[in-house]
Amino acid sequence: xxxxxxxxxxxxxxxxxxxxxxxxxxxxxxxxxxxxxxxxxxxxxxxxxxxxxxxxxxxxxxxxxxxxxxxxxxxxxxxxxxxxxxxxxxxxxxxxxxxxxxxxxxxxxxxxxxxxxxxxxxxxxxxxxxxxxxxxxxxxxxxxxxxxxxxxxxxxxxxxxxxxxxxxxxxxxxxxxxxxxxxxxxxxxxxxxxxxxxxxxxxxxxxxxxxxxxxxxxxxxxxxxxxxxxxxxxxxxxxxxxxxxxxxxxxxxxxxxxxxxxxxxxxxxxxxxxxxxxxxxxxxxxxxxxxxxxxxxxxxxxxxxxxxxxxxxxxxxxxxxxxxxxxxxxxxxxxxxxxxxxxxxxxxxxxxxxxxxxxxxxxxxxxxxxxxxxxxxxxxxxxxxxxxxxxxxxxxxxxxxxxxxxxxxxxxxxxxxxxxxxxxxxxxxxxxxxxxxxxxxxxxxxxxxxxxxxxxxxxxxxxxxx
Length: 466
Ligand code: HEC
Ligand code: HEC
Ligand code: HEC
Ligand code: HEC
Ligand code: HEC
Ligand code: HEC
Ligand code: HEC
Ligand code: HEC
Ligand code: HEC
What we know:
Oligomer: single chain
Number of domains: 4
Largest sheet: none
Distance between the termini: 166 Å
Strand content: under 5%
Bound molecules: heme C
Number of strands: 0
């Protein structure tokens, strides 16, 4: 029969379950938007995991670790079939589609990844498919039926799919250069296309590449920043300025004000890459103005042209400004070493820092190729640095005077001590001499006293006998 006592015992449990179902409610409602959850029966994974055939087993093992498994994207979402049955799992009437053909893969992935409603929860962009279709890769796949271009899985993995923040992902930032170069550095693979295969080697030698490899600097570009991972195409004439300018915005702004920029818009040259290289971009210096490398001024302006001569003049101005700042900085360092700390010199350091900041900006401003403006600025820098140098010279002079004064003081002090010592010695000698003479006088007096006593005694003796 119905036991009231017992049912009261269950009430707290009832409340607990109601509480639990409420706390799961938001998650449950989210899951409705999401693909089937992987926690449900999955005969595909079970049977494939237990297979001895590596071709069948590896997809299931890889998928186990993936973000897709975590997000509930299961075998059925990409291959169809019936994951609740062992025998009929892979039957066509259960919707099984088998192994997707290469040309169908982008659209397969895009079923979810181009669906902003599905991706919103994960804060993922949904433009990969449309960019891909516009890229050289995508166009060749769709147009020429070229199977050698990558689809989504060549860059992301097929089953072992990870977030790009995960170091295991082939598109984790430091891994991207290798992922692209798997094909692009392979001479045999790329032979039929007649595109160069030196991008990876060039990149590794570049200033960007060294910062990425040696310091894992997250700010420097990898292949995907300049080409886009999905829109892969070489940036066109104007785009290069945009691509480099995404990060080097100040420099790009200066460049846009130059005659070079005007010429670039008309003729397509010179772009950033004509003076810096596209993959092997070294740290540039003034030697570009007079050097004979493929990216130096001479590659477009013959040495007797006015433009080249302007460059040589510009080089001279930059070198003078740089040398004067350096010289002043060395002088400050020397002053500190030689005891200038007694003087107020911190303002000199500040002044030099200002001059240096101005110099760095002026180097970027060379991209305007506005010679009169650059001349004015470099003269200001040289002037400021010279002033600091002069102030330091003055301090050195004062330091010298102080030092001479100090030497005099010491000499005087030593002489004084010596004289004092001499005086002390002579006083002591005098005292000793006096003491000695007094001593001998006393002894003589004593002798005299003794003699008188003897005489007296002798007189007394004779008196007694009398
Ligand atoms: C009872 C074991 C078993 C189950 C369950 C199973 N598979 Fe398979 N699967 C196999 C075997 C064996 C092969 C290789 C023979 C073949 O191609 O039929 C295979 C092949 C495949 C292939 C490769 C087909 C090709 O064209 O190369 C895919 C994809 C696949 N399975 C997906 C699935 C999916 C998705 C499910 C669940 C809906 C599933 N499998 C369930 C055993 C299984
Ligand atoms: C996100 C989509 C996706 C999911 C999820 C997925 N696969 Fe695949 N699978 C693919 C694609 C795409 C290919 C074709 C890869 C290629 O051509 O290189 C493939 C290929 C395969 C192959 C053939 C491998 C070969 O080398 O011939 C098997 C077997 C397979 N999948 C099984 C599974 C099983 C089992 C699961 C679940 C444990 C699963 N897949 C989950 C997309 C998926
Ligand atoms: C059924 C829907 C679905 C399909 C089909 C699908 N994905 Fe996904 N994918 C997801 C979801 C959901 C996530 C988000 C997982 C997360 O962030 O936790 C995801 C995440 C990813 C990520 C990680 C993104 C990041 O950086 O965080 C990559 C890469 C990815 N998928 C690639 C693919 C590829 C390649 C294919 C085709 C072979 C594919 N996906 C097919 C649903 C899908
Ligand atoms: C040529 C290589 C390549 C191909 C092909 C490619 N991707 Fe990517 N994908 C990348 C790189 C590199 C990133 C890293 C982010 C970036 O720089 O764009 C990325 C990032 C992603 C992300 C994470 C985006 C985010 O917001 O964090 C998703 C999702 C993704 N790709 C899906 C796809 C899908 C779907 C396809 C096929 C339509 C595809 N990718 C094709 C290289 C590729
Ligand atoms: C699976 C091999 C493969 C992978 C991986 C790959 N590519 Fe490609 N890529 C090709 C092939 C093949 C072409 C076609 C060559 C052509 O038509 O110029 C191409 C073309 C290009 C082009 C156009 C070159 C030109 O001037 O015609 C660029 C740019 C490019 N890829 C960049 C990338 C980037 C960036 C990545 C990595 C995010 C990448 N590729 C990954 C195979 C690959
Ligand atoms: C700093 C930006 C930048 C980075 C990083 C970069 N590229 Fe490029 N890449 C360019 C520019 C700019 C061009 C095209 C210049 C032109 O039109 O001549 C180019 C051209 C290409 C081409 C066409 C063939 C050629 O050499 O002209 C391929 C392929 C290519 N890059 C692949 C890659 C790969 C792979 C990586 C990574 C290892 C990479 N790029 C890194 C800027 C970059
Ligand atoms: C994703 C951002 C990014 C892009 C895109 C980029 N760079 Fe850089 N570049 C950097 C960073 C970061 C440094 C290192 C700056 C530092 O250490 O102060 C750097 C350094 C340089 C340097 C060395 C001089 C210096 O100021 O450090 C040159 C030259 C250079 N980049 C040229 C280019 C050119 C040309 C392009 C286009 C083809 C380009 N960069 C594209 C981020 C970028
Ligand atoms: C890729 C080719 C190219 C390179 C490299 C190049 N320039 Fe130019 N330069 C041009 C073009 C094109 C013009 C505009 C047409 C003209 O006046 O000759 C121009 C114009 C100039 C002018 C303006 C001339 C005038 O008439 O006012 C100066 C100055 C100049 N360049 C200096 C330099 C310096 C300095 C360098 C090296 C740092 C350099 N250029 C590198 C192509 C180049
Ligand atoms: C006409 C040749 C020329 C062009 C075009 C050019 N540069 Fe430069 N760039 C130079 C020279 C020369 C220097 C070195 C000046 C020095 O060190 O005295 C330099 C220095 C730099 C530096 C280091 C100094 C700084 O500005 O911070 C960066 C970064 C740079 N360039 C980026 C770019 C970018 C981005 C573009 C395209 C928008 C570009 N350059 C276009 C010649 C050029």
